[in-house]
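Milestone M4 deliverable, item 7.
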Amino acid sequence: MAFSPAAVSCAEELRPESQVTQGAPQENHTVGNSKEAVPESADQVPSYGAVLVTLDGPKDAKWSLNGEGAYESGLTVDSLPVGTHSVSFSEVADWTAPAAQDVTVVKDETASVSAAYVRHVGSVSVTIDGPKDAKWSLNGEGTYESGYKVDSVPTGAHKVEFAQVENWTAPAPQEITVAKDRTISIGVSYVRHVGSVSVTLDGPKDAKWSLNGEGAYESGQKVDALPVGTHKVSFSDVADWTAPESQDLTVVKDETASVSAVYVRHVGSVSVTLDGPKDAKWSLNGEGAYESGQKVDALPVGTHKVSFSDVADWTAPESQDLTVVKDETASVSAVYVRHVGSVSVTLDGPKDAKWSLNGEGAYESGQTVDALPVGTHKVGFSEIADWTAPAAQDVTVVKDETSSVSAAYVRHV
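Output delivered:
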């Protein structure tokens, strides 16, 4: 049925005026609609209703009716002709708008529509190189392990921060941008607090030190980049030395912990007994002048050389090597050999004539006395009746030679 001009004019007079009602923050707003209700006949009065749309989404989201307007969530549009209308929704960055909806307006009623925007989301995954207690958080929330992935993160800028861990420097916070349906992965490293250790050894040149059971470092060597905390310094075994006890030491950030350690040499003693002249002395490794029976202590274990002083008219013993054993005394005996020669005396006189040496003995003419110490000796002669004995004589004995003496008795006449 077609409308007459008179009917249209009448409907226009009866249509409510457009209006906006501002309510409390939670109340709906109402606006008039510009469309006209066309009566089915000239006798009918146009019918109107309203539409209320509630949006779940960003604050910038708007809705429109039949392609017109830009209404806030919760706003009511009234004075709408009854019938079917199309509600559509504005595009908002980082959100998927709801699909347009048809809504049926009924006379004197409000048709309510709810629609939800869907946020664009992605994921964030963080890999941490550092201590096991290291954690990361997103925008100041959560404590996530290394390798954990957080899903349903709204697209856009976010801040990744890292937990403080004792003795480590945490990475600086990072700004990241999350893209729709993608995973942004980042890798970060904690920096361990470190210091150094230096060890000085007093001991043999072969002595070494190790750290936590590893390494073989020289005396005075410094080991850097050691994690702060307690470490154990130990020392190598060296033959004939007692190594120091292992030591615990504390490494402090950016400092050098210094340790001194002393090896103790294994020692023993040497004692030498001399059979020889009173002036005889012995020495050890070319040093000292020790008396017979004297003991030298605190000698390093191992081989040492004992040698003997020269004494006039004596042959010193040969030098000797001896082995010193830990906590024991090595004893040595040595004999000097006196230089000797011989004396032979020939007598011209009675058959009973005898000669003596240094007041001792009664030797026949021509007899040789051996093994006499070198030096001066006195030859004397026996008294014989009716004969005058020779005067006593000094004779010099030379090493390994025979000193010969001749003497004549004189017959009393």
